[in-house]
Input
Amino acid sequence: MSHLQFADDTLVFCEAEEQYVRSIKELFLTFQAFSGLCVNYKKSGLLMLGKDEGWILRIKRMLECTRIQLPFNYLGIPLGANMRKAASWQSVLDKVQKRLKSWKCSSLFRGGRLTMIKSVPNSLPIYYLCLFKVPRKVADDIIRIQRKFLWSGDKEGKFMPLVRWELVMKQKNEGGLEVGDIAVKNIALLLKWWWKYGTEDDQLWKKVVKSIYQEDNGLIPSKLGYKCPGPWLAIKNVVNNQQPLSMKTMQYLRLELGNGERIKFWEDPWLQEGILKNLFPQLYVLSRQQNTIIARMGWFEGRRWNWVLAWRRELSQEELKQVDELNTILQQHQPVIDGKDSMLWDAKKNYTIKAFQQAVNRGSVYDSVICKAWMKLAPPKVEFFLWLALLGKLNTKEMLWKKEILQANQLGCPLCSSQSETENLDHLLVHCPISWSIWCTIAEDLGQVITVPMNFRNHFQEWMSRQWRNIIMRKIWCSAFFAVA
Ligand SMILES: [Zn+2]
Output
């Protein structure tokens, strides 16, 4: 590769020999003479590897440009830094902190802060998250910044979270706030490269990666190949480890068998049943066809495929039984002579970050009542309040007493000024005579009859489940709940 261009930037590569540098300079001068466009050497940088200081100084003088050293930033990405070290991510953390500080956070309500934490830390380091595996420590630091900001704004010192962070991170239809987990997002973004790898054969980046890492023609990055440290190695390993999330990810990544030219029989995930190497570990050890593509594991008789399995030695009775099992699976699958191997995510020929999140979240329990808090009928701060109330996590006097902030004699309800009633969530929002009379008035105005519910959650459920023939009336009815709450 001799050069790369992006927008108004040009990168020129050459071997560290004086004659090469000299001819490049001549080339620039010729270009200048012909086009009238000249290179601004003062703004250009020279990076050299593997040469002594004297040589570097001489070349620098010849080109009259500044000298740059690794690591440096190019298009916002640090080049040459070891991104497995938490220290290399400090600038990202600083940026997130600074961005949140720059807002008048103390004046933002929680609804607004929620929007901020979702947008800022999730979008700022995205450049980095697309390319590098975020170290666990950095992910934890970002989460700490998000948590602190959500619950206490920019106030210094300790903060009091009202809801577990695991729930806050979850999708709204699962009862969470959809803040998301930065580590999950990171894997989703890195996996995108697997997708590109399998689909963008003619792209320059793929050619470069293939040649550096000595990758074969497979649809997914091979586990073999050259282990040169760098972003690609981390991307390759993103799901090739035994972490729970990686294992879950592998359940959804599948290769669809075409002619079998780009799928490895034992190692690749091309069967619903799983990866053959893991299903038949004993046979895998004995196979003479490790790392062999499917197309070379049999032959076509007309359009019919015959599997051929080869072993290192004669198989025992027990092993033959396993081969029978394997054959039963293989009978249901065969390459198609003019087919093309392809990649599937969750049975679809398309990979998106959203599809990734949906797949890995599948099977988690969700709270159908709480997710109704986000019907976009009220400003975010009201929705947030309702969400807390439905979870029973409002800081009422009773709650503050449990947290040992208030004394037992300070718990009276401020609305009905009754000292015998404790200000807890259900009393304050439903059972207190003053609150209840408001609910009744609204219901009456809209021509509905309501009965005293057991608690606030039931009240909300009952209110929201009313059937309305008129869609606008339904909206008004639902909004009324938010207005009162
Ligand atoms: Zn009361």
Observations:
- The longest helix spans residues 18-35.
- The pocket of zinc ion is lined by residues 413, 415-416, 418, 421, 427, 432 (CB under 6 Å).
- The beta strands are 3-6, 9-12, 45-46, 66-67, 72-74, 77-79, 253-256, 298-301, 304-307, 342-345.
